[in-house]
Amino acid sequence: MEHDAWPLVLDLAGVFFFAVSGSLMAAQKNFDIVGSLFLGSLTGLGGGVIRDLVLGRFPNAFAEPVYLAPPVAAAVVVFFLLPAVVKLRRTLLLFDAAGLALFCTTGTITALTLGANPISGALLGTTTAIGGGLLRDTVANVRPQLFDRHDIYAVPALLGAGLVAFLWQVGAYTPASGGAVAVVVFALRVLSLRFRWRVPFAAVVAHREGRATPPAD
Amino acid sequence: MEHDAWPLVLDLAGVFFFAVSGSLMAAQKNFDIVGSLFLGSLTGLGGGVIRDLVLGRFPNAFAEPVYLAPPVAAAVVVFFLLPAVVKLRRTLLLFDAAGLALFCTTGTITALTLGANPISGALLGTTTAIGGGLLRDTVANVRPQLFDRHDIYAVPALLGAGLVAFLWQVGAYTPASGGAVAVVVFALRVLSLRFRWRVPFAAVVAHREGRATPPAD
Amino acid sequence: MEHDAWPLVLDLAGVFFFAVSGSLMAAQKNFDIVGSLFLGSLTGLGGGVIRDLVLGRFPNAFAEPVYLAPPVAAAVVVFFLLPAVVKLRRTLLLFDAAGLALFCTTGTITALTLGANPISGALLGTTTAIGGGLLRDTVANVRPQLFDRHDIYAVPALLGAGLVAFLWQVGAYTPASGGAVAVVVFALRVLSLRFRWRVPFAAVVAHREGRATPPAD
Question: Does the keyword Membrane apply (chains A, B, C) (predicted)?
Answer without folding.
Answer: yes
